[in-house]
Amino acid sequence: MTNELVSSAHSVGESNLHLQFTPAYRRDIFADPLVRELTTAYVVEKAQELGVHVAAIECGPDHLHTFIVGWKRFSIAELARQFKGYSAYMMRRGHAWMFDDKLWGDKFWSGGYFYRTVGAVNAETVKRYVKEGQRKHWAEKSAAGQTTLFHYGG
Q1: pLDDT tens column, 60-81
Q2: What CATH superfamily is the domain 14-151?
């Protein structure tokens, strides 16, 4: 992977971020392929609205990983708030019936999140992990593994 520096009027640099979110109560809501696909689509939709790039996004049965590039205009906390808030709102508003047996109240995501900024040396490793590293979580759920993988960009 060639790490390209991004130029703006007053800066040159690279901003890569690994974010992981966990559903409330660590429930395995992403075992349902449609819940998984809709949630990831809403995260990607919000990223496009914010002008950041989702290089990779993937789910385990009970968590979601994203690899975000070009996010320098936002704090990590703001990105997490935007992604979690929008996806939770959209999932609860239109699709709550799909997971209301596992999540109750108004909760969709747990309160926290994992983040790691990623430099040029590690960017390809993290991207590969997000794309391929979730297979181990699906081994217990199904011999076939996960059938959906969102991959945006190079």
Answers
A1: 999 999 999 989 899 999 999 9
A2: Transposase IS200-like (3.30.70.1290)
Q: Is 35 helix (H, G, I), strand (E, B) or coil?
A: helix
Domain boundaries, the chain: 14-151
Q: What are phi and psi of 47, to 5 degrees?
A: -60, -45
The pTM score is 0.78
Angstrom CA distances, 76 to 70, 114, 119, 150, 151, stand at 12, 10, 15, 22, 21
Burial label for 27, CB within 10 Å (0-12, 13-18, 19+), is middle
Helices (H) and strands (E) in the chain, counts: 4, 7
Q: Note whether 42 and 108 are within 8 A (CB).
A: no
